[in-house]
Design goal:
Chain lengths: ~300, ~375
């Protein structure tokens, strides 16, 4: 429904991307391609040739090993569907923790990415357990640009969840429609971090749909409870704030991520206790930004 | 019909003083960029000369604007203004003007007015003068990266140069709309720009860290007042009355630890601070389900003290964390062990319990990564801000 409506929009969103306002604390060089259709979901950042696939027999063997696990998952899904009693309402004041960083197994649910991986820079990052037993996202942001004549600004590291999946490796969504606030218990170092909630859809123009907001950390030895309502998240595509704003669709959350980026080189440390969701009935706002009607042919240009 | 610039280049070649312009047939390079040089060294020197314009002894805002003004004066026809603008943008950081709106305006002012405004819909659609529009967009991009919010004058200038449907104007609109929205989002606002002075920075940092407890007082000490201190430096100490009360209740057999240095970032500046930490307050073991369900021997916590001990405990304050109880936080000028010793001596004056409780220095901390600290400033003490 929403996706088909988007198809009808002008498909010039990704042309000459420097024109848009950058959502991150620092702007990145987004690909200034003059093409409308990009068949690669990675947007040119990784090509098929970069992946090392094992031999076909090995792949078949691995697949058969996973078959049992997938069937068990599928059984659970069928049971839930037949039971037909999903949770519809979240209780007031309760935080439903999605990711609790109290054991190393949770760390495997996040994928790390930095500009070094894309040959865009020299930043490094890692996700490990901190001395006090919580998750620690740490690293070094380096704003030195590689001298390839293409990159103008760089310096970012991010941690992101893997795409939500159903049985048999089918792409799925996280359904957060019961809640209206994101709650994070963190201990930062005074830096600001960018929170990204991706709403990647089926059609290619929605592949880079992300909703952003900034997590400001106090710094210091005291823990900080950050409650950010979803109405404050603004619509972004490939790092550029979009002209036509819309509220986040909480039924179709594909990934959640945190990006560390700054205009100055240096270390960063973000200690995370948990990331959770809450329903705050006192928060009535649906969307914090205006949804103005724009002049023709200006949007996305 | 030859384009005007090519024509002028060709014409110049036919007329006399074209030696200089010979290498510049395909794009207009102004005399400003080419110094008087020997003909044989012209080709090599062209690259070198373009950089040397910015090799001024005094690099500040005035000299930068002066350079721009000279370009405008010596070059009425604005030859090579795009190249000049790109070169100027590269050197902005050296001159320390990358956060100055007036400087960006002076760069936008270089563009000729009225010439590049599209006259029909094809010109408007196909980015009339693309190189210039891209250059103006790059100026705005640099402004955005440095957090400089443009004003209406920038819009007027850009409209006069490129017309109201041009891409730089559209980018300006987006910046003018979004940047003020995001400007003051931080719950802990910092001055723009953040002060350079380490003392002021440290004060801001401590205010930020201790904003959890509004009654915190930040005191300034000077180790000159202590006779036996090696480092003569300022010491900022933050402590609240609540922390003093907690300290009074602490037993004498458990030592306190001075841990540090930890880092806090204020915009792009880093401040090192230290924490005086006590052992964490242990949580009382929660009653098991059997104990809760057992109603044979119920005791009221209001009447029976033993029952009260078991089930009730006063609410934890914000300073009683799981990793430790924070008694005070400090930042010093030299961030050395000696300055920390002076800090403890000063604290002892206002906190009598510190006389009976031992204080130790710790190399590791449960609060996070510690930057190692030197004994004193004489031993190459660490600097405060990066």
């Amino acid at each position: 429904m929403a996706e088909t409506l988007k198809l009808c929009q002008v498909l010039l969103r990704r042309r000459l991307l420097k024109l848009g306002y950058s959502s991150s604390c620092q702007a990145f060089h987004t690909s200034a391609r003059n093409q409308v259709y990009d068949p690669n979901p990675k947007g040119g950042f990784r090509k098929e040739g970069d992946l090392n696939f094992p031999s076909r027999t090995e792949m078949i063997r691995d697949g058969l090993k996973q078959l049992k696990g997938e069937i068990m998952l599928w059984k659970e899904e069928v049971k839930e569907k037949l039971a037909m009693d999903p949770l519809m309402v979240a209780r007031k004041g309760e935080v439903d923790v999605q990711w609790q960083f109290n054991n190393p197994e949770v760390l495997a649910k996040f994928q790390l990415n930095s500009d070094r991986d894309q040959n865009h820079g020299y930043s490094t990052c890692e996700l490990k357990m901190s001395p006090s037993g919580k998750g620690l996202f740490t690293g070094f942001i380096d704003t030195r640009c590689p001298k390839d004549g293409i990159i103008s600004t760089t310096g970012y590291c991010s941690m992101r969840t893997y795409r939500a999946r159903k049985s048999f490796k089918r792409d799925s969504y996280l359904n957060w429609s019961m809640y209206n606030t994101l709650v994070m218990r963190v201990r930062g170092d005074g830096r600001s971090y960018q929170l990204n909630i991706a709403n990647a859809g089926y059609f290619d123009i929605t592949w880079n749909d992300v909703f952003n907001f900034i997590l400001y950390t106090r710094g210091g030895p005291y823990w900080q409870l950050a409650k950010i309502p979803f109405s404050k998240f603004f619509y972004v595509s490939k790092g550029r704030v979009q002209d036509k704003q819309r509220p986040i669709n909480l039924e179709l959350v594909s990934n959640f991520g945190i990006t560390a980026t700054d205009s100055s080189s240096g270390e960063f440390n973000l200690e995370i206790d948990y990331i959770g969701l809450e329903f705050d009935p006192a928060h009535q706002e649906t969307f914090a930004y205006e949804k103005y009607k724009h002049s023709n042919f200006i949007v996305g240009n | 019909m030859l384009r005007p610039r090519l024509l002028s280049g060709v014409l110049a070649r036919w007329t006399g003083g074209a030696d200089r312009l010979q290498s510049s047939r395909n794009f207009g390079v102004s005399n400003f960029l080419l110094k008087k040089a020997d003909d044989s060294e012209q080709e090599e020197q062209k690259q070198v000369v373009a950089k040397s314009i910015f090799d001024v002894k005094e690099k500040n805002k005035n000299s930068y604007i002066d350079m721009v003004r000279k370009f405008n004066e010596r070059n009425v026809l604005k030859r090579g203004h795009v190249e000049f603008i790109y070169a100027a943008m590269k050197h902005m950081d050296e001159f320390g003007v990358s956060k100055d709106l007036e400087v960006y305006k002076s760069l936008i002012d270089i563009f000729p007015k009225g010439k590049m405004i599209p006259r029909n819909m094809f010109q408007a659609e196909f980015q009339h003068y693309p190189k210039h529009q891209q250059c103006a967009t790059d100026i705005l991009e640099k402004m955005e990266q440095n957090g400089v919010i443009p004003d209406m004058e920038v819009e007027v200038m850009l409209t006069n140069v490129f017309g109201k449907t041009a891409h730089p104007v559209r980018k300006f609109m987006r910046m003018y709309y979004w940047m003020p929205k995001f400007n003051n989002l931080s719950p802990w606002p910092l001055p723009k720009p953040v002060p350079d002075d380490p003392f002021e920075l440290a004060k801001l940092a401590l205010q930020r860290i201790t904003s959890v407890d509004l009654l915190t007082k930040i005191n300034t000490f000077d180790s000159k007042d202590l006779e036996d201190s090696l480092d003569k430096t300022w010491i900022l100490s933050a402590q609240s009355p609540l922390q003093k009360e907690i300290l009074e209740r602490l037993p004498s057999d458990q030592p306190l630890y001075v841990e540090g240095a930890f880092k806090i970032w204020l915009r792009s500046k880093c401040v090192q601070y230290f924490v005086l930490r006590g052992k964490p307050k242990p949580y009382k073991p929660r009653p098991t389900m059997d104990e809760i369900d057992d109603v044979s021997n119920l005791k009221s916590p209001y009447i029976d003290e033993e029952a009260a001990e078991k089930t009730l405990e006063p609410l934890r304050t914000v300073h009683e964390q799981a990793e430790g109880t924070i008694i005070a936080i400090a930042a010093t000028g030299t961030s050395s062990k000696d300055s920390l010793l002076s800090w403890i001596r000063f604290l002892q004056k206002t906190n009598p319990p510190l006389d009976r409780i031992p204080v130790l220095f710790s190399m590791t901390s449960p609060f996070g990564q510690v930057v190692p600290v030197n004994d004193s400033a004489e031993n190459q003490g660490q600097r405060l801000s990066d």
